[in-house]
Here is the input.
Amino acid sequence: MIKYNTHDWFKLIFQFHKSDTFRRLLPAMLLVGLYATAVAIIEIEIWQLRYKSTTSLHALLGMVISLLLVFRTNTAYERWWEGRKLWGNLVNSSRNLAMKLNAMLSSDDIAARKELLRLISLYPEVLKLHLRDGKHEAYSHGIHQPNAVASNILKYINGLYMQQKITGDQLIIINTELTTMADVCGSCERIRKTPIPYSYSMFLKKFIFVYVMTIPFGFIKEFGYFIIPAVTFVFYVLVSLEIIAEEIEDPFGEDANDLPTDEFAQNISNNTAEILR
Here is the structure.
């Protein structure tokens, strides 16, 4: 995730990060510019603007496509923000679990503290890789790894209960945090495995393409040869919004605008170590 100063307004305007859509779209923008140039030459020099323009139709379609893009970007951002809240819940649950275990366990029980530190710190690492379709080397490839780690945490804590190192009431209190960890995993999987419907995504892409390709025919009389940069800029804006929405709708990857799950996992490990030691 890119970190930046939201108040450094003018610097952000002239800054081009490697994830900026301008770099990614530059080849396509050049092609669109060439297309607009060819259409402008044909309409102005050969046809000499003898036919009626269709500005009203494009203005109406522009309103429709704006509404569709607003819905698209809002839906993608909601998925990104929900993912952020889920990882925030995981951070809080891990801290709470560590603090409760720290209070319940004897300060002399070093072995139990080390094992719980290892397991609690392992869970976000495994979940992070799981959401990226990766595998942690500590577990075999044929299992649901977050569930395996959560099961091991529960088994170990239940073993502490059997050894009478914690009471039954304390075991019930701890169960809330363990349940939250499993719920976070399931909710993240729901976001990860349920993308925007294919038909909606394809329709929007086709709509943008047709709209941009027909702009020179609708506004050539008003803009003349200035239609070339105008079409290129409209293409950049509309397609950039779609690309940004595609990137943030799956917020658990390694793209520049995805959630900093590496940082979250490290923070959980550091906080747990600080509490249990």
